[in-house]
Specification:
By secondary structure, the protein is mainly α. It has one domain (about 1-175). It is built from 5 helices and no strands. It starts with a helix and ends with a helix.
Length: about 180
């Protein structure tokens, strides 16, 4: 019986770590590497450079403000509703859909890029609220901060080394004339 319990535990740990690895793609690729450059050079191409940069700043400010106001409410829902996995899936789906729709952004579509990014950021951050709320249910108390965060960090760094460069080339190749 303990062998089955241990295998189940390892499977749950692996799933949690792989989600940690996968969700970091939004932060490393969309938030930090690709979209800021894409926004100013493609989506905001018709705008003066200073205006494109300021619109990107406004977009980030709006997204962060919405997340800051929603996070405590989402945290309360996570603690009391018992729907952590379902809410994680719903917010992750919003983030994935909004991020996938960024493909439709073309030259001069700064407003569409801004709206999709805000929804993507809300999806990403909202999913992280529920993802973090699941940690005490996944980890043994003595492993929460040592084992899980370190394993997730290692997986994220391995992905970041190669993933950002390849994604950057893929996104900008579509818009080269």
């Amino acid at each position: 019986m303990s062998d089955v319990v241990e295998r189940t535990y390892r499977r749950v740990v692996r799933a949690w770590c792989l989600y940690d690895w996968a969700n970091s793609a939004f932060a490393t690729t969309i938030m930090a590497v690709v979209l800021p450059t894409f926004y100013s050079s493609v989506a905001g191409a018709g705008l003066p450079p200073a205006r494109a940069t300021s619109y990107w700043g406004y977009t980030n400010s709006i997204a962060m403000a919405l997340v800051a106001f929603a996070a405590p409410v989402l945290g309360a829902i996570a603690d009391h509703a018992g729907k952590k996995k379902r809410m994680l899936g719903a917010f992750a789906s919003v983030g994935v859909l909004a991020t996938a729709l960024l493909y439709l952004v073309s030259t001069g579509d700064w407003l569409l890029a801004s709206v999709l990014y805000v929804f993507g950021r809300i999806g990403f951050s909202g999913a992280n609220v529920f993802y973090d709320a699941l940690l005490p249910h996944v980890a043994k108390p003595e492993e929460i901060f040592v084992f899980f965060r370190n394993r997730g960090f290692v997986l994220r760094q391995m992905k970041t080394c190669g993933g950002s460069v390849g994604c950057n080339e893929f996104v900008f190749e579509r818009h080269r004339a």
